[in-house]
């Protein structure tokens, strides 16, 4: 991993500024999931060329444009998902976009409301984030770049759903960054139009006046508990916050000034493309002024119930990995409608 990170640091790719067909760049974000960062590179051109060679149908090309087009709700093909996973691994190795792909999956699933029974009104992992209306939500600032990264893969494999692709990309990014194997299941059905997108305001804020209460309000609505809140917060070991998008963090630090990807932003950890338990260690110590601590991060060691788990994860990486893998798998299925109803694994 150290060798990969050292090699990655030599790559400096500018984040794309153009539009993705399904949406436009969003406004400033204050999401506590993953405050906006960008991880894009010239390898996008290579990915696009590889995808173009598969000659997708016109229907596949237009499926993500997010206005009047409707796609057929259908389960994903397991063989195509497995092939897509290999392409995602190559994409990660080429562009080092692990943080933004994790954020893509989380923000598609994190709108779930357990108090709403009907699908898709209940939100969750249903592919709605591909549509322009949801991309414009403030918490989704910059995720147009994630869509640009995965759209060629969707075009290449038209028999997979966006909902599955987003969650596959997120879990694969964690694993490829050195994190635990996520016990994922697939077969999520996509929503068919932008009118089925959730309303804005479902995702957590980074700087609420009562951070612990706010985290519980949002995550309890999803059916997650204190242990899962703390474990999922540990994914901030990956990525950076950019003040021009989220309003949080420094424009640049010694850890981010050389990229990889577009340089700048402030990371939570020194090795921000490596998944480990350093987030909890750094938040606990608060010694490095170049590392970010949001109010919702600090709350993990200030709230007595959260602190039990935060202290545990700072001391025991294996315990963190085990709890994180379970929590990520649960988050990735929130609100989803599966076909077949029980879903399926790619590792059976």
TrEMBL record:
SUPFAM superfamilies in the record: Heme-dependent peroxidases
Keyword Transferase on entry: no
Biased composition (Low complexity): 28-41
GO cellular component, one term: chloroplast
GO molecular function: heme binding; L-ascorbate peroxidase activity; metal ion binding; peroxidase activity
One GO-annotated biological process of the protein: response to reactive oxygen species
Domain Plant heme peroxidase family profile stretches: 124-348
UniProt enzyme class: oxidoreductase
Cofactor(s) needed by this chain: heme b
Family listed: Belongs to the peroxidase family. Ascorbate peroxidase subfamily.
Full protein name: L-ascorbate peroxidase
Lineage: Eukaryota, Viridiplantae, Streptophyta, Embryophyta, Tracheophyta
